[in-house]
Amino acid sequence: MRMPIVALIALAVVFSVSLLSAPVPIQSQIEKDAGLGVLSSNSQKGGEEETGPYEVVPKWPQPFARQGYIQGSQGGVFAESPNRIFLANRGEIKLPEKLPNNFNGAWGSFGTPATGQKPELRNCIIIVDANGKLIESWTQWDKLFQGGRGPHSVKISPYDPERSVWVVDDMRQQVFKFSNDGKKLLMTLGEAGVAGNDDKHFGRPTDIAWLPDGTFYVTDGYTNTRVVKFDRNGKFLMTWGTPGTGPSQFDTVHSIAIDKNRRLYVSDRGHSRIQVFDENGKFLDMWPNIRQPYHIEMSADQYLWVADGVSNKFLKYDLNGKLLYSWGTYGTFPGAFWGVHQFSVDSDGNLYAAETFGGRTQKYRPTRSADPAKLIKPVPLMGKASN
Fold this sequence. Notes:
By secondary structure, the chain is mainly β.
């Protein structure tokens, strides 16, 4: 009986050694690298990918609210250039007389969402430079936002050589088009403060996106459940979408992006999904199980990036809906997120994230060791930057 026992022990030792020396499965390595960054390619110990391939720029932007006030909930951000960044600011909130020791310059550090405060609608559209210094404030247009909660989003079409500035105001039921210098209001869609579901009204519109010929689409919105298509001059063309849970049905149509093949990606936020359509509203695809896609953008290399307002992560998808990468964490400390409502990337690759609950817009720059595949590639704009 001794020989079989010895043989079994020897066999067990050999088997154990073979297990210890076996290579780690590739999938396990990918999951570790794409997750919290516990194990990195250079075997660095510890750490999490809280800011992914980026690092936060501290104390950006510089304070711009008047003495005793702070910027309110941030509706949107758009980087025309590295030195000209538009902020859609939902007014200014009066600060308490005594500030806590952990106050970091943003309302979110108080632990309550900025959206729960009643702001004074002042400095609603401002422009800052690369250092976050205020260079323009379109106070002449603050009157347009009175009676609502301030601008919902701000954008410039990548196909417009004049670089007109578009602002969507959900509560005032309107979409505005301004000259790039802010001196002229070029177009107004919708009737101030009047909701509707026809070709001249909106039901709390949210976002806008363009085709190369200037045709544009407005997601509409919180009250309505549709996408509205206009020609380049603002003439109503068509609409689609109804309440419900099936294809082409929506609950909070919150953001929109378009790929180079003229397919439309629509954030169906209330249903935790993205729906895909052709340019005439024909349903093509559905991507479920995205907790709350607050804002979506198509990158220059044709990936769909999503800011999820519940998980507080940035998500990268291919155009078949496959999740490729994610990063981000909840918090009010620098580099964390609390409800990214819109994001933008400038031509240098810097990322800007406007937080509706945190009450701040943060700037991120790519780290020196950043994997290019994990960065959001900026879509170039036509025309010449003002700065």
